[in-house]
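no rush on this but wanted to send it before i forget. what follows is a protein written twice so to speak, once as letters and once as structure tokens for the fold. mainly i need to know what kind of three dimensional shape the backbone takes. thanks a lot i owe you, the record is right below.
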Amino acid sequence: MGIVSLLSLLLLLLPSGLRDHLSPGPPAIDHRRPPEDEVVLHPIVLVPGVSCSELEARLTDAYRPSTPHCGALKGKGWFGLWANCSELPAHHYVDCFIEQMRLVYDPAAGDYRNLPGVETRVRNFGSARGFQRNPEHTDWCLEVLWQELERIGYRDGDTMFGAPYDLRHAPPLPGQKSEAFAGYFQRLARLIEGASEGNRGRKAILFGHSYGGMVALEFVRGAPVAWRERHIKHLVLAAPLPDGGFVQPVRLFASGSDLLYVPGMTTPLALTLRPMWRSFESSIANFPTPAVFGGGDDAPLVVTRERNYSAADMEEFLAAAGGAAAAERFRRRRTVAGRGRFRAPMVPTTCINGVGIETPERLVYWDGDFDKDPEQVNGDGDEDINLVSMLAFDEAMRREPGQNRMFKTIKLRGARHGTIITEDWSLKRVMQEILQANRI
């Protein structure tokens, strides 16, 4: 028997997870459905990343458009505001889109509102097939994942569901108001309850990717303990945005975000959408915190010729970057966050992160021009989330005695934030964890 054949036989004697790890090359996805006596599928609810939820708008008589063109749809019912992104430039609607997507902060209410006369709602709530479809990147919004889930027996509207949300808002911290997320969490609770009732009372698996991971985590944290125990089978988080924040949102706020992809733009997309992005609560919800990134002169996150900014200086940074209107909103959110302690979800939880990818940990705007992309000093992470943030979340979860025994963390070297659920080899590991959550 040759050495290669002998090694192949030895590999077969190892546990499947270790065998896959030691096998040469990324493992292929196994599309075979597990035997019915091995896996009983629990309903699963998918919460997508920040750009994947479609929004509809309706313009009432109270709307005062900046140009007549932006008021063309006034009184004509609901229309797709953030739906098929390729239609925005085709209909010369980008400026109107920016105006009608903007949020206004109400300091008296401590909450965010649409512009007067603009009503919005999330489209396709409940369906795992109803997320945003980017014509140039059709795999971005959980499409590959739900296709793999269908291959093992899941069916949309029966055992598989989707829970899109208003991407402009952020899940509220304890003591903070959010009319948008209060309504969303109520709908999500009813969706999970209905999924459980429609599947012989089986508890649901809640899956969240990226910003959707943070949304799913905050939902479970805020649910009554008895409700969690009755309805949540497992919480599976893929590259969730961590409590301690990360550096990338600082760059997106300063130089503009390209997370909302609009094809065919002739001007720099990030700068064009920057005023709109800065009005969103989601733009400041994940700034790095001093608890994770430090707050002294020896821990600068932003470097300029005039001064440096640490995680403790983010309010001053916002003002310097031209976001003075966001500074007060940020101060209020961080003040609320500083009063609380870490809250574990207290349900079985698996957290999957990519590591080993260069990730920005320091931004250099030497001449103070925040319209330009910064020079970056990189460290470890998943290209977006810093490793130090991931480890801080893991440590906090393990410090909770009741959560520690129900917490599993997985680090996939080479997996990137956006493609951890689309690349074959990392998607296979995500699918393994979903199947394992069904078996437990």
